[in-house]
Design a protein that fits this description.
alpha/beta; 5-stranded parallel beta sheet; 445 residues
């Protein structure tokens, strides 16, 4: 069963709903439940909704962590493909229900590889078709075949794959109706006037550096330029590991760090051998799924979004992410362009079919939660009917039986076994519980 949670606007609580479903869903025997995101920042954001909750037999993983035992190998045709090093043990015991956040950032090829390597009974995904698409890798570009049923062209969520789509219709992020109205106007994909932009946004070519500033850029080069300017006023840090984005410390527990707390954090992170860099400027890609604090001054460096290398759709997706991070319209400022320049550049691209409203059930969070949970509970996925499982069973049947009996033994209730054994032979008891006679003997000692 494949279920998609979409929204009429960003900030409608897709991640909150997804984490609530993840928490409340009760896995069936031999079922693993995993919450997956593409980036660590999105995973941290999801975890924050469940701080202090006990989630037995459930786990949070980035996509890379989930496929950490995969490797790229050449197939018979010399093409590269993914192979899971422990796929036999996974298929022998478990099937999966996957809760995937920011699905728009996971490519069709990555999703296809997941479904080829794991027995997946359910996918519940949340994502916005109008935000950033997946960042292609060389491997996935070379193997872009046969996956159109998941996501069109690696960027748009395809409704054909989803058995049911829910569209949340109440934006919680935005604190003023004027911002909602502006976003709805832009989402119509019609030409906008310079007067419309000037009436709703602030335009500037300079700024007074403040600890609450947040500069949203498209390129890392512009990010570096911004952070160099704030070298004496940095109140926000990004943590990198081996020069690869690891996680982003925008705020600590919803608050900016004071100098002493910041110095302690920096020292602690240095001891863990991670690299600290300022983060007063951040790319829009790293901010997807994140909400600015009411105190933030959000500067959008629109001039950095202008490049022949950026497609019209990518431009609009990046702009949409930038515009929808702040809860209030008065926080948003365009930097480096005036209203005429901004209107001209946006109008060149606004009709590029970047905003796609999916057909689905418009609903509230509570209504979607109850219906989705009922659908998952009623889904009777049978592992033995899965063709991959049947093929694996033919090849590894004996090992499979031993693995299952060992796993089954660890889940037995001693009182149930003892009660059954009181009226039946040892062999009959072992057969009834599908374990060995030795296991029954050890259990009842």
């Amino acid at each position: 069963m494949n279920i998609l949670i979409n929204a009429s606007l960003p900030g409608c609580g897709k991640t909150y709903l997804l984490t609530k479903l993840f928490k409340e869903y009760k896995p069936k025997p031999y079922e693993k439940v995993v919450f997956i995101t593409k980036a660590n920042k999105a995973l941290d954001n999801a975890r924050s909704f469940l701080t202090g909750e006990k989630l037995e037999d459930k786990s949070f993983k980035t996509l890379d962590q989930f496929k950490e035992n995969w490797k790229i190998i050449p197939n018979d045709n010399g093409e590269e493909t993914l192979k899971h090093l422990k796929s036999t043990s996974h298929i022998s015991r478990y099937y999966y229900t996957l809760f995937i956040d920011e699905i728009s950032m996971i490519s069709q090829y990555e999703l296809d590889d997941l479904l080829k390597n794991f027995l997946v009974a359910n996918i519940v995904a949340a994502g916005d078709t109008s935000q950033h698409a997946p960042i292609s890798t060389k491997y996935y570009e070379r193997t872009a075949k046969g996956c159109d049923e998941y996501i069109d062209d690696g960027s748009q969520i395809n409704s054909k794959f989803w058995d049911k789509t829910f569209v949340l219709n109440t934006p919680f992020r935005f604190k003023d109706e004027s911002l909602v109205n502006v976003l709805r106007t832009i989402s119509k994909q019609d030409i906008i006037s310079p007067n419309f932009l000037e009436d709703n946004f602030t335009f500037c070519n300079s700024y007074i550096k403040d600890a609450n500033d947040l500069h949203i850029c498209y390129t890392n080069k512009e990010v570096d330029t911004v952070n160099d300017e704030y070298i004496e006023n940095t109140s926000r840090y990004m943590i990198t590991q081996k020069w690869k984005f690891f996680e982003c410390f925008i705020v600590q527990n919803g608050q900016f760090l004071d100098k002493d707390s910041r110095d302690t954090l920096v020292q602690d992170l240095c001891e863990k051998q991670k690299v600290i860099v300022p983060a007063m400027g951040v790319t829009s890609h790293k901010l997807q799924g994140w909400t600015a604090q009411p105190a933030h001054n959000v500067y959008i460096h629109l001039n950095d979004f202008l490049s022949d290398k950026i497609s019209d759709v990518d431009f609009m997706h990046a702009l949409w992410v930038a515009l929808t991070r702040a809860p209030s319209l008065k926080q948003v400022k365009f930097y480096g362009v005036d209203a005429n320049q901004a209107a001209n550049e946006i109008n060149k691209r606004i009709r590029s079919n970047w905003f796609q409203k999916l057909n689905g059930v418009e609903t509230t969070q509570d209504e979607a939660f109850n219906e989705i949970l009922d659908i998952l509970d009623d889904n009777e996925y049978k592992r033995e009917d899965d063709e991959r499982y049947v093929e694996w069973l033919k090849k590894y049947g004996k090992a499979h039986t031993g693995a299952h009996k060992a796993h089954k033994a660890s889940t037995l209730n001693v009182d149930d076994v003892r009660a059954y054994r009181a009226n039946n032979s040892l062999r009959e008891t072992a057969k009834h519980f599908n374990v060995s006679t030795t296991t029954i003997t050890k259990l009842l000692k």
